[in-house]
Sequence to fold (628 residues):
Amino acid sequence: MADFPRRVHIHEEGPREGFQIEQGPIATADKVRFIEALAGTGVAEVQCVSFVDPKRVPQMADAEEVARAIQRREGVRYTGLWLNLRGMQRARKTPLDIGGQVGLSASESFSVRNNGKDTEGLLAAHRQTLDYLVENDIPLVSGIVTTAFGCNLEGAIPVERVVQQAERLLAVVGEYGMKLPVLRLADTVGWANPQAIAAVVGAVRERWPEQRIGLHLHDTRGTAMANALMGLQMGVDTFDSACGGLGGCPFAGHAGAAGNICTEDLAFLCEEMGIATGIDLEALVECARLAESIVGHPLPGKLMRGGTLARFRH
Amino acid sequence: MADFPRRVHIHEEGPREGFQIEQGPIATADKVRFIEALAGTGVAEVQCVSFVDPKRVPQMADAEEVARAIQRREGVRYTGLWLNLRGMQRARKTPLDIGGQVGLSASESFSVRNNGKDTEGLLAAHRQTLDYLVENDIPLVSGIVTTAFGCNLEGAIPVERVVQQAERLLAVVGEYGMKLPVLRLADTVGWANPQAIAAVVGAVRERWPEQRIGLHLHDTRGTAMANALMGLQMGVDTFDSACGGLGGCPFAGHAGAAGNICTEDLAFLCEEMGIATGIDLEALVECARLAESIVGHPLPGKLMRGGTLARFRH
Fold:
């Protein structure tokens, strides 16, 4: 337990990854209201929208409108997702805090399906992006290895493959004299178990002891909180999550995919163990209820129903 | 990770603790069907009913009928819950496998509310039960300390208090020359976090190194799977759980209490880490779907929606 971080950094992805998978249209005003409520909870970063092809992801067709309507709050980063240089250029025209990102999938099949490019294709695209970052003096904010714990198309993913993809990401940014402020390992389709978390995080840490590692977890099979605990035990201090447990990946190739790890449940777990999140849990529970009312169906988060323990403590 | 048990023993409590909290009446035949399906999954023990006052728990008014209707399967223990000697005598008249149980709450207020007796009153009742066990040559099967991680009425529970109550249980059974085959620590109202699991299990283990310890976990605030992982890391090899995540405690004093830790999600977590459960996960997922159709509302279990990984593995 000595390895628990003292503080964790939570990147709230509900408005983007969460809303993205919802079938029904969500009003721009509701998206903005939710983002503003989240930004008021103390969460450090909110991923607001994705700048992707509206034909593939109709829910994100109003990305620019959402980005421009947000009443910004000081101290909060408002992020967005994009998959290629064109998406980034779109994103940069909005008031969002758009930094450089690079990513590879540990599964070639998933890479082609999700990004339309294999590893070589993505690395070529990343060089274009990195050129653009240098030309425009834009900081690199993160790198991600997706399907790092398994893939519905390719099955189990060897640990060495994740290390190899991390190495390629670090090498390509290294060509530009850059480092990855955080290397995120994503359990994109909910395959991870705590032993796999320990193995993959351990292998990456052993190879690059100074590299900050983040986890992007899904609760597809109920293991997300156990996986997060193992991450914390391994010293991971950066997590992507979604308020209310919103989310899922529309291209993951299986129906009924449960959402991202639930932000308020994760923050509760941390706070109960004395790990600071900077988050007002009661305010975040209110956000989860707001999310439920916006999407119009129950969300899987537990804390929003069980309530925090504050009212019972003497 | 070296401390993980090689095999865990799961006591399925869905038919009792799960159905008990359901508002609508559940047909006796549905209860029997669910119990028989569970017994076909490889789970070692199924808690079928409770022998309690039908005025307090109307759902269990047909306990005898259920117990007698079950088509028994060899190798499975069919257990029941009872709170006093009279309940045990009722239970003993059925074909269920009724052994002796003793329990105390770590919270006096919860004890009085849930059992109508404080610690002294329960110990006096346990002596009556233990006399009866000796007279009738009935084995003692378990002891339990409830609200071992916190209580909605009394708030935080000091670790020393749990050790004290465990000591009283072990002392009273010791008076009869008996031991507890398993000492179960219950997070009755969903207060536990992994650090508390480590502290309480660690304190009990330190005091009685040879005592087998079980965990009874609730997922009220989303921490159950992380708590189970910590239990496994501490070498705990016995868990109570409920298929589909059924459950909750009707006397716990808060609405919206989430259920017990979900059996199939827990079994999946174990199996993915190479810890044997003896359970056929696909069959158990079918049971969870059956439970959902019986109670007529969605249950919180995740694996029943995400599916196991078997079909994706090459």
